[in-house]
Structure formats: C-alpha cells, structure tokens
Design brief:
Layout lengths: L2 H4 L2 E4 L11 E5 L6 H33 L2 H4 L3 H12 L5 E7 L5 E4 L14 H10 L3 E2 L12 E9 L2 E10 L5 H6 L8 E5 L4 E5 L15 H9 L4 H4 L4 H21 L11 H4 L2 H8 L27 H5 L28 H16 L4 E4 L5 E4 L50 E5 L2 E8 L5 H13 L5 H6 L4 E2 L15 E5 L4 H9 L3 E5 L6 E7 L4 E6 L11
Parallel strand pairs: 15-16
Antiparallel strand pairs: 1-12, 2-8, 3-4, 3-7, 5-6, 6-7, 8-9, 10-11, 12-13, 13-17, 14-15, 17-18
Helix pairs in contact: 7-9, 7-11, 7-14
Length: 554
C-alpha cells in the first residue's frame, strides 16, 4: 500500500460564508446566533474593517507622495526607478512598486532591474478602473509567484486632466494578519480576510495552530484511508470481491465512528479528532475486519486511548445497537434529501422512488476551480432544496439539514440538537496536497455516498493509475449500512449498490459474504475533479458521465 507516499495532506472542508466590505471582505464564522452575539460580531467586524482600511489608506497616501516625484514628472523613468526603490526599502509591508501605462503595459517594476522585460499585468480590470474613475483602486489578491503577489493598491497619476500612469504598491497579504490577531472575537470563532473575489489571504485558527480539534473535520474519508494503509489495496485488484469487501468493511468502521463522534466542534465536549485520525487507532480498527463475511454489527470504536484521554460516553458506546436503526423490510427507506433508495416491486413505490432519484441529483452540486496562479477551490453547495421554507421575501430557502441531528445522546452524543448548533454534514469538498502543492481537487454530491465515492475515486488515481477522467467514470460501490443522515436515520446492513457491469462471478462471491445487491447502470456518482501535473505544468479536469456534469477550460 502506498497511500502515504501519494498523500501528504488531505483536508476536507466547506466553503466559508463571507461578508462583503468594499474592497476587502472580513470573514467570521458565527458560533452562536443570539442577538447579543450578533451585535458583538458586528462590532468585531467593524473594528477589523477599520484596521484594514487604515492600512490601505496609509498605503494610498504613501503612493500619492511618490507620484509627486520630480523624476516621474519629467518622465525620467530610470531616475524614478531608483527613487521608488528607496521608498520600497522604507515600507515593510510592500513587496514591490510598479508603474503602468493606461493601456495596461507595465514599464517599471522595482523588484527587477530597470529595462528588464516585464511580465504583463494579470489584473487589467483594476488598472482600467483606476484610469476610468481617476481614483485609487484596490486590485484582487494575487498568489505568490504571480506578477504582483499580494494586494495591489493602484493610484492614478494625473496630468492635465488625464491619467498618465497608474502607480501601484503591492501589499503583502500577511500584513493584515496582525489586525485579525488583535481582534477579541468570541471564543471558538475563526476569522480571516479575503479579497473582493472571495479568496483567502490569512486565517487565524480559534485554537493553537496544529490543533486538529479546532477544525470541523468530516473525516470518514480520512479514517478510511488510514485503515486501508494496513493492506495492499492495489494487490487486491480493482473491483475484485476482496477489494469490494475491504472497501465495505472499512466504510462500516469509519461511518460507525462518524455516527457516534462527529458533531459541531464549537460545542463541548471536544471531538476526539486526534484519536480518530491516529495511525495506531486505524491499525486497531483494521484488525477488527472479518475477511470472510460482512459484519452487520460493526460498532464505533474508542479513539480516546489513542490520544491519551478517557471516553466521556463509555456507557453509551457499550449500549450502542445497530439494530435500533434497522427498519423492517416492509417499510421503504425514507431517503431524506439525497439518500439513494432501493426500488421495490410495487408500482406506487417505484413511481415514488423515481421522483426521489430525480431530487437526489438536483439537491446538491459540486464545483472545482483552479487558475494559472495556483488558486484552487473545491466546494459542495447544498441546502434549501425545493420545497423549502422561504425566508420572508428574500427568495432564500432555509436549509433542511437540521434533520441530520439526533434528539437523544444514545443515538450520537456529539450531534444532539440544541440552539446555535450546526449538525454534522455529509458535504465533503476535498483538496489533496502532494509535496506541499495541490495534487487533486475533487468533490461529489449524493448525501452519505459522498465520502464513499470520493474514497474510491482517490484510490482509482493513486493506487490503480487511472487518469482523472477514467477515475470519475469508473464503477463504484455504495453502502447503506451506516445510519442515514436524512429521514429516519435508518440503516440497511449488507445492502450494496453496484454497477450492472459487475461480473456474475463477483456478484456471487459478494452474495456468499452476506451482501444484498442492487444494480444501476452508472454507479460512479457525479464526481468532478482537477488533477495537477506539476512535472508538465498542466491541469487535468474530469467530470463523470453520471449526471449533468461538465468541465470548462480557458
């Protein structure tokens, strides 16, 4: 198994909501929604905005002073280059100073010798805005390695009522970090600054850096990878009976832990994330796999000893019964928002299932995006599915994800509904880094199938050598043994959806292991992904043929 060599960091997260503020946006994730906390939030945001504005205003003032240079007035660009270089040396937060013609052509960049061939200005729009308005303009944040890494602050140099040049100072993004750090935000909040395009500049964790418990992990995918590190996945052969059995049993264990330990990290007790992601814990869980048959009674483990702690819910763990969530066969699966339902034989149920399957793919989307400067985004927008309660006259549908809560601690002590709390979610937009650089951005819609399909996609690429397009179309298997995140939270032990192309011999072997199979033509899930080939400096996009997914390159 070589997962470790392929993957240095795999992080799953969700896009953060942002509050627009002129040029820069201050981001605050709200832990509680009481009126008092909301007022405190606004005060904190205003304070942060004021600090950011002060930094930018000071930069504009300094640039205006430089624009009054006699060398620039005489169009002696060589002399102005020297003068601008001296000014740059006095500005600790600036990375460079550039002089740009109204056409967008860069004529000076003090980070390079005078007369050098200069790269083009990537953000021509903010230059055009400065020319058109004759007012200072803040450009979008540019990634390190771009022509203007940082936040470009542009000031028009006006002569005889016309813009002769646009003088720009590029401010380091991390210069705003101190402003964030100084804010006294409510305990458990996370703050940051993003540019007007919604891209993160700095992020200050609510708890010390490196504390995994400060991050709202959706870690079933990560746990599954840790468990599978203990065997030779590639040697099992793709979609062989042994490989499918290994996937199913691994997901049984990872999702059992999810159903017990995952919740809102802003609410105590703290999730045992370090233990859940421990390699030793994964090895202990791997040892519990029965390689001859499915285990319908796979239970949550106890990760606390693997992080030097004591489980506060030992009695609940000991009394955990999977049978409590197994509905009689006479009752159809409730499905919820995006839970795949196994069709029954009567016509009324088949019709209901058809309607449900249509909503299954319409309720959530996945988007992957990347650009030449190195920005990468993975997001899975979801919630507010129609029919929905609309917030007044806004047209905004309220989320139905409160159904993912439980009401009693015995059914999941970390995910019990209470005021201000967020339910654990199925959304798993994912970024994988290799050697410290983006390697894969991938996501999929489909409720409890998300971690399952993304796990198999990832293994398809790193273990079985598939291209990103092959990997998004390859047949997957889906389990229903975990407790559904929707509807009545029912469990279907041993139930598995497989592709109709699965060979008869494999089907029979799985049935002998205790699995009940249903078949679909395409089982990959609507996966979207981008792979980054740093050797050849290329990006490879893939969209599955499962639904209305597609890729755009420009």
């Amino acid at each position: 198994m070589r997962i470790r060599s392929h993957l240095l960091l795999l992080a799953a997260g969700a896009m953060l909501p942002v509050l627009a503020f002129a040029v820069l946006v201050s981001v605050i994730l709200v832990r509680q929604d009481s009126a008092t906390v909301q007022r405190g939030a606004l005060d904190a945001v205003r304070a942060m905005m004021t600090g950011v504005d002060a930094v930018l205003a000071g930069t504009v003032t300094s640039i205006k002073a430089l624009a009054a240079s006699s060398a620039l007035a005489a169009d002696d660009l060589d002399a102005f280059h020297e003068e601008a270089s001296r000014v740059l040396g006095t500005q600790a937060t600036w990375t460079t100073v550039t002089l740009i013609l109204p056409s967008g052509e860069k004529v000076i960049d003090v980070s390079r010798p005078f007369g050098s061939t200069l790269p083009p200005v990537r953000d021509r729009q903010s230059v055009a805005d400065a020319v058109a308005t004759m007012q200072p303009v803040i450009g979008p944040v540019s990634a390190a390695g771009g022509s203007e890494p940082g936040v470009p602050v542009r000031v028009p140099v006006i002569r005889d009522g016309k813009v002769a040049y646009v003088l720009t100072a590029v401010v380091r993004p991390d210069s705003f970090e101190a402003l964030i750090t100084r804010q006294r935000l409510p305990d458990g909040w996370i703050s940051g600054i993003v540019d007007r395009a919604g891209r993160f500049v700095a992020r200050v964790p609510a708890r010390p850096a490196g504390d995994l418990a400060s991050v709202p992990f959706r870690a079933a995918l990560l746990q599954a990878l840790n468990i599978l590190e203990n065997t030779d996945v590639k040697g099992m052969e793709y979609n062989s009976p042994k490989y499918i059995h290994a996937l199913y049993q691994t997901m049984n264990l990872a999702f059992a832990d999810r159903d017990f330990y995952y919740g809102d990290p802003a609410f105590p007790p703290e999730e045992p994330v370090k233990g859940l992601l421990s390699k030793d814990y994964a090895k202990a869980r791997f040892a519990q796999i029965d390689w001859t048959k499915n285990d319908p009674n796979a239970k949550p483990g106890d990760p606390y000893p693997f992080q030097g702690g004591t489980n506060p819910f030992t009695s609940i763990l000991e009394n955990w019964k999977n049978s409590d969530f197994v509905l009689p066969d006479s009752q159809p699966a409730s499905g919820g928002q995006d839970r795949r339902v196994v069709p029954r034989t009567d016509s009324a149920t088949i019709e209901a299932d058809s309607v449900f399957m249509e909503s299954f793919f319409a309720g959530t989307t996945s988007i992957e995006a990347a650009d030449e400067e190195g920005w990468v985004v993975s997001v899975t927008p979801s919630g507010g599915w129609v029919p929905a309660v609309i917030a007044g006259r806004t047209g905004i549908g309220l989320s139905q994800r409160a159904q993912s809560f439980v009401t009693e601690a015995k059914d999941g002590p970390f995910n019990v509904i209470e005021p201000g709390k967020r339910p654990r979610v199925t959304l798993t937009p994912t970024l994988a880094l290799k050697d410290g650089a983006p390697y894969l951005a991938f996501a999929v819609q489909g409720g409890d199938s998300q971690d399952q399909n993304l796990l198999q996609f990832f293994l398809n690429v790193v273990e079985f050598g598939m291209t990103v397009q092959q990997a998004v179309e390859a047949p997957n298997v889906n389990s229903y043994q975990m407790r559904s995140s929707f509807g009545r939270h029912e469990s279907r032990p041993g139930r598995m959806t497989v592709a109709s192309s699965l060979p008869e011999s494999t089907r029979e072997a799985l049935k002998q292991m205790g699995y009940t199979l249903d078949f679909v033509e395409r089982s990959s899930g609507p996966i979207n992904a981008i792979l980054f080939d740093w050797k050849h400096r290329t990006m490879w996009g893939g969209s599955s043929n499962h639904g209305e997914d597609y890729g755009i390159a420009w």
